[in-house]
Specification:
The complex is a heterodimer of chains A (219) and B (447). Helices cover 80% and strands 0% of the residues of chain A. By secondary structure, chain A is an all-alpha fold. Helix content of chain B is 50%, strand content 5%. Chain B is built from 21 helices and seven strands. Chain B has helices spanning 16-23, 27-41, 44-52, 64-68, 77-90, 97-109, 127-140, 146-158, 168-181, 205-209, 211-224, 242-245, 248-264, 277-289, 302-311, 331-334, 340-350, 381-386, 389-400, 411-423, 433-440, and strands at residues 198-201, 228-229, 269-272, 299-301, 325-327, 405-407, 429-431. The chains are: A mainly alpha (219), B mainly alpha (447). At the A-B interface, α2, α3, α5, α9 and α12 of A face α3 and α5 of B.
Amino acid sequence: MNDLYRFVTGPLAWIAFLVFVAGSLVRIGHMLYLVRKKEAFIFSYFSMSYGLRSIFNWLIPYGPVNMRRHAVLTAVTFIFHLALIFTPIFLLSHVVLWDENWNVSYWSLPDAAADILTVVVIACCAFFWIRRMTQAEVRFLTSASDYVILLLVAAPFVTGFLAYHQVSGYPLFSILHVLTGEIMLMIIPFTRLTHMLFFPFTRAYTGSEFGAVRHARDW
Amino acid sequence: MVHDAVPAEEKTVLDEGIEKGASRLTEERIAEVINRVLYGEGGARIRVYVDTCVHCGLCSEGCHYYLSHDKDPHYSPAGKVKQTLWEMIRKKGRVSPEFMKRAAEIAHTQCNACKRCSMYCPFGIDIAYLMLVVRRIVHLLGMTPLYIQSTAHSHSATMNQMWVKGDEWPDTLQWQEDEARGEVAGLRIPLEKEGAEIMYSVIGPEPKFQAQLIYQAAIIMNAAGMNWTMPATSGWDNSDMAMYTGDNELMGRIKRRHFETAIRLKVKKIVMGECGHAFRSVYDMGNRWLGWKMPPIPIVHAIEFYYDLLKEGRIKIAKKWTDPVTLHDPCNVVRGRGLHEKARYVVSQICENLIEMHPNREHNYCCCAGGGVINCGPPYKMTRMLGNRVKAEQLFETKSKGAKTLIAPCHNCHSGLEDINHHYGLEMDVKFISDILYAVMEKPEKA
Ligand code: SF4
Ligand code: SF4
C-alpha cells in the first residue's frame, strides 16, 4: 500500500503533469499546423479584438441569449467550472504539497469551504448525468464515452471527499483520489475535455468572422 | 444507440438526383471521397469542431427545424452532424449508399446553412460549415438533389442560374427600358458604360420572371441620378447555387466572371439587388475561393445602397407606405453583414409604422428557403413548410399586432416566406424594399 502510494504521488504524478502539458501543447500545435497547412485563410481573418470580444461576452453569466434561455443549466455550468478549477488549486492539502516539494506557498481554502465546493462539483456532475439521460436532445448526442468522461471528472472529488472524511478504508481512497486525479489530468488533451484547450480558439475564430467580416454579434 | 434512424414524421421524398447518384455508388468509392474531403481538402476546422463539441445539445434551440418539429433531436444542429459526419469519421468513411442518401437529404434539405446555431453553441461551432462539407462530399459523389444540380448546370453552361440565353439578357433590359420610359421620360438602362460608378447586378430569376424588379431599379437609379451601368454580357448574374452544392470549382468560375465583368467595365463598385445568398457568395465565399480576402471591388447590397440614397437625400419620399409593416432580417445580410440597423433606417424612412417581429436582428428565424433548400425544388416544399412552423407562428404574432406587409429584402426569403404565407394562411403582403421604395418615392417628370 505504501509503495503504491509512493508511486502514485511520485513518478506517476510527474508523468501525469507531463502528459497533460505535453499533450496539450501537441494538440494545440497540431491544430495550428493543420490550419497553416489546410486553411491558412483562418489566420488572415483572425481578429484579436473581435476574438476577445466574443470570449469576453461568452464568459459573462447570462450575457448570451442562449444562457438566458437555460437559466438553471447556466448557473450549474458556471459554478461547476469555477469549483472544478478553483478547488484543487487552492485546497490546503494541495498547497501543502507544493510547499513541501517546491517551497511554493500561497493562499489556501478553509477546509470547510473546500468540503462544500467538493460536494458542489459532485452535485453538478450528477446534474449533468441526469440531464444527459432525460433531455431528449442531449441523450440523442450522448454516447457511452460521455458518461465515462463525466465519471472520470467526478472521481477525484468523490474519492477525495471520502478520504478527507476518513470513511473506513480511507487509505485506499487516498490512493484512488490521487490516481483518478492524475487520470483526469492526462485525458484532458485526448478526449472531449479538450474543449478546455480549444474554447478560446473556436470562440475567437467565430468571433472574428462575425465581428470583423460580418459586422454582427455572435452571442 | 440508433444511428441511421429517420424521424418518424419524415416522409420519404424521392429525389431522382439522390437516387440515381446513390445507385452508382460503392462503399469503396464513398470512403475514398469522404476521406479525400475530410483529410485532404479540409481538416483543421472539421477536426477541432468535432473534437470540441461536448454533446451538450445547447445548439438545438438555435435551429428552426428543431423548434418546428416539436424538439425532435434529429433536427438539432449537432444531431445533424451526428447523423452525418460523426458516423463518417467513426467508420473511416466506409458508410453505405443508403447512409449517404440520408446524409444528402439532411445536409441539403434540413439545414439552411443559416448559422443561427453558431450563436447558440458556447464554442461557436459552425454547423452550417459542417453541413456544407457534407454537401461537398455529396457533390463529389454525384448525388446532389436534382433541381439544385440543374441550376448548377445552368450556371456552368450559361454563367447564369436560369438558362437565360446570351441575347435574351440585353433584350430583357431593353424591354424594361422601353416600359420605364413610358413612366419616366428619357430614362436609360445604360449598357456596357465603361467607367460608370456603379455596376448593377441581379440574380438569374429577375430577367426570367421578375423583370419588374429591374424596372424598379432603373427608376430608382434614374431618380437618384446615379452614374450606373449593366453589362450586356454574361457576368451580370451574381447568384450562385454552386456555393450551396459544394461545387467550389464552379463557384470560382461564376464569381470570377462576375468580378471580371465589373473590372472590365472599370466601375468603382458593384451594387446588387435584394438577394442574400448572392451577397454571401460575392462577399464571403466566392471571393475566398478565388483568394481574395475581401471582394476585389466593393460590393454594396441593396439595403446599404438605399440607406445611402436616403441618407444623402438623393431620393425623396412623396408619401410613406401606410399599411403597418414588419421586417424579416435575412441571415445572409444580417448575420452575414450586419445590415439590420440600416434596414430599419430605410424602412423607417419609407413606411409609417414598423412592427418588429420577435426574435429579430441577428436572432431572427431563418426563412427556411435559403442555403439552397428552396432550390432543391418542389419535392421538398413540405420539408420547408413543416420545418418552419416557428416562422409562421412568429409572423402570426406580428400580424396579430397589426402588421399587414411583410418586408423580405432577399430573394430566397421572399419566395420562402411567400410559401409560408400561403401554406399557413397568413394572408400577409410580401414585399421587397424596392417594391415599397418605388411606390412611395417622388418620381421624375412623366413622359
Ligand atoms: S438550419 Fe441554421 S440553425 Fe439549423 S442547423 Fe442549419 S445553420 Fe444551424
Ligand atoms: S452546442 Fe456546440 S458543443 Fe453543444 S452539442 Fe451543439 S455543437 Fe456541440
